[in-house]
Amino acid sequence: MTTPFKPKQALDFDGALLQELQGDISEAIAGKLIKELPPLKKSSVVHDNGCGYGAVTIALMETELPADIQVQATDINPMFLTQLQAKLKQNPTWPVKAESMDAQKLTFADNTFDLSISNFLFAGLTDDVAAASHILRTLKPGATGVIAVWKDMPWHAALEKAHHKTRGDDEPLPPFLSKAWHKKEKLEQVVQEAGWKNVNFLEMDAYLKLGVDLRRWATIAWTFLATPVGGWKQRDEDKWDEALDCIVEELRNSQERKVEGGVHMIRMVANIATAQK
Fold first, then answer.
1. Domain 15-276 in CATH: superfamily?
2. What one-character-per-residue DSSP string does 64-116 give?
3. pLDDT higher than 70, residue 15
4. Are 155 and 264 in contact, with CB atoms under 8 Å apart?
5. Tens of pLDDT along 115-127?
6. Where along the chain do its domains lie?
7. Cβ count near 204 (within 10 Å)
8. Single pTM value for the model
């Protein structure tokens, strides 16, 4: 069987690089979000839906929690779950259970959770409405459901420009870049079709830390987020530096960029839907 082509400059995928790519921005939004939600009560059961490496779980554990709270953290990505399990081993007293589960096919019983948070899960789904329906189904009456999706991600525009510059305007965007955020209208449509009622919408922002070397971050991002439809081609290896030059230039010129202590950061904005069942 022929091994798929991969540019020599592309990095080998691992959890540490993924963490470097996404920084702590999910935790930052989760922390802000938790402060805006109704306080949890004793013995509350919380779902960290599409938990990734556990941004929501970590943010919860860093707040003052009532007694006997339980957290169910689920994801289908084994690498994310491995990262979260390692975190849980370092904190054995945390009341958290992590397991593999598809957000579009949750197996929890109806009326299980007092709070369900889906923090930047929906970009990776094929059936948004099914996932939103399962959130509603698994909430207790009066419980709160939350969906956070990215609205504005300036780095996305940089990668998209590099894609068109090095691959042409007619080639479809890589899968991740083609579905990386939701406008408010899309989020409204999804929750409405899923049966959510009296939905509130808000925006929150945070800064993604790109590091001291923009080119390194661009290399990680181009490797992990810009794999073309149908796989890498020799063209991508030949134009690798051209793509990175384009990304770095766009990031440097972004009005949303700032530098603190030599670290480049870029502002991102989330659309958030909340509703009580």
1. Vaccinia Virus protein VP39 (3.40.50.150)
2. ---TT-EEEEEES-HHHHHHHHHHHHH-TTS-EEEEE--GGG--SPTT-EEEE
3. yes
4. no
5. 999 999 988 788 9
6. 15-276
7. 17
8. 0.89
